[in-house]
Amino acid sequence: MSFSPLVRQLMDALRVLPGVGQKTAQRMALHLLERNRPGGIQLAQTLLQAMERVGYCQRCQTLSEEPTCAQCRNAQRDDSLLCIVQSPMDVFAIEQTGYQGRYFVLHGHLSPLDGIGPEDIGLPQLLTRAQEPGVREVILATNPTVEGEATAHYIAQQLSTLPLVLSRIAHGVPLGGELELVDGGTLAHALAGRRPLISPAN
Amino acid sequence: MSFSPLVRQLMDALRVLPGVGQKTAQRMALHLLERNRPGGIQLAQTLLQAMERVGYCQRCQTLSEEPTCAQCRNAQRDDSLLCIVQSPMDVFAIEQTGYQGRYFVLHGHLSPLDGIGPEDIGLPQLLTRAQEPGVREVILATNPTVEGEATAHYIAQQLSTLPLVLSRIAHGVPLGGELELVDGGTLAHALAGRRPLISPAN
Ligand SMILES: [Zn+2]
Ligand SMILES: [Zn+2]
Predict the structure, then answer these.
(1) Which of A11, A17, A93, B109: disulfide with B147, CB 3.0–4.6 Å?
(2) ipTM of this complex > 0.90?
(3) pTM here?
(4) Recorded GO terms, molecular function (chains A, B) (predicted)?
């Protein structure tokens, strides 16, 4: 009962943030209440707007408050390359390497034991997207984890009948790690050293 | 340009939280957007309410959305003890020791070089509060830092003409530290071992 009900509610609400335990939530709440109310109000308003208005790009499935995202709308990018990643954070990581192609964001990986199947991560949309004119190579940049590898393998099978080069980013990225934690240089190297999985028969 | 404008605004807004840098803000924003929108909306609404409605208790100056806080309204507590602390977090810390008296929260310490004088931390209100019927002992529990000691010393001088026992929490608390980081056992010991600074002449 040391804090008033509304202050306690704020401390509890802050714990939805990843990595924020009781002590950190207390410090955050008191910092905003005692030292930065305008910043706290700004955060509340932006958070509410973002939660209500940010959806998914119709074309690549990344987070976007517009129907299509800036990368998809940018006519300067290379339509022949389509890079498949597991999350919007991975788009951010790969953009740092200077990659200029297109993206498709899966939002997760296949996980049959958890009931997460191809439809749940948007694979039907990917199949359609990969058949659009201009696409020549699909780069599988899922995480170098067991689940990411299995997802890449499944996608490769699904796309194997299409006249596309399928490639996987090179294992310059450390096995068992998460793509977004890899430094830009390593990631650029892995991207440059991608190797074909399946080439068109012709 | 990897994230949409509203997603970037959210990442920027999250950096008002203490200890949250760019990478952590990105993870927090994507976590809420991808995995917990109800939690994000709840946080936004609670944050806005708290920033707009939480004020200060008229009696002890701690954070409270009511005119007087629960500790001040609780008729069971011991009116004879008045414990002076620097922040609402210190009230939380001292409550863990089982202390049953009253509090007065300064919101900082005297800092003449920064232009923070007695009025800025509520010392006139403290002088009034300390003269209310029933108060017999004022416990100075400011931080065991140079500034906290100087503030305690100044308050002791101001209250020295009143018929009160003035005490300082014992230096079981480590010098140079912050009160809220001290474990409950040490703090309970320090509170029990408090020593008189000035006793009434009678
Ligand atoms: Zn897009
Ligand atoms: Zn109060």
Answers:
(1) B109
(2) no
(3) 0.82
(4) DNA binding; zinc ion binding
